[in-house]
From TrEMBL:
NCBIfam families: yfiA. Pfam families: Ribosom_S30AE_C (PF16321), Ribosomal_S30AE (PF02482). This is Ribosome hibernation promoting factor. Its main location: cytoplasm. The lineage of its organism: Bacteria, Pseudomonadati, Pseudomonadota, Alphaproteobacteria, Rhodobacterales.
Length: 191
């Protein structure tokens, strides 16, 4: 597994990096046999340290956890415990989906943009409501089943996920509704 351990405006020593690799490696190997990458970022917020961890698995899933504590090691342990709980909770689902999958998850590239309103219609909206054109970032769009998409969205803590439905190759969206349920948008079914 490849590790990227860094700090935002704080120095991360070799002892902490060694501790993170050993403990996180043990936790992830217990539940996910083929992790590919772990990103660990430490930062300081007022009096407490914050540890944010993202783990990318070979099944195409991404798990995220965040821990807070006055001590940097305790912040990591809090984050590791949350990651352990998430992976333990989804172990059966991860294994079931992996067993059915004949080939690895494929990702297609995509870009997210905020588009500006045209300046010809200045009298329709005040200037403060017109968004600027900003290229947000490139993102990966996985080709997975609806169940895997929901699982990936829950593991990553996101409110929505855009994916290609492996059943028909079309672009779909799953999202968390305000009532706590999961919504699924499949434009192909709207015809």
């Amino acid at each position: 597994m490849r590790y990227q351990i860094s700090g935002r405006q704080i120095d991360i020593g070799e002892a902490l990096q060694t501790h993170v690799k050993a403990e996180l490696g043990e936790t992830v190997e217990k539940y996910a046999q083929r992790p590919t990458e772990a990103l660990v970022v430490f930062s300081k917020n007022a009096y407490e340290h914050v540890c944010e961890t993202t783990i990318h698995l070979s099944t195409g899933l991404t798990a995220q956890a965040k821990g807070h504590a006055p001590d940097i090691y305790a912040a990591f342990e809090s984050c590791r415990e949350k990651m352990d709980k998430q992976l333990r909770r989804y172990k059966r689902r991860l294994r079931d989906h992996h067993d059915r999958r004949a080939r690895p998850v494929e990702f297609a590239g995509g870009s997210a943009y905020i588009l500006a309103a045209s300046e010809d219609h200045e009298d329709q909206e005040p200037e403060s409501l017109q968004p600027m054109i900003i290229a947000e970032m490139e993102t990966k769009v996985p080709e997975v089943s609806v169940g895997e998409a929901v699982m990936q969205m829950e593991l990553s803590g996101q409110k929505m996920l855009v994916f290609r439905n492996e059943g028909h190759g079309g672009v779909n969206v799953v999202y968390r509704r305000e009532d706590g349920n999961i919504g699924w948008i499949d434009p192909r079914n709207s015809k």
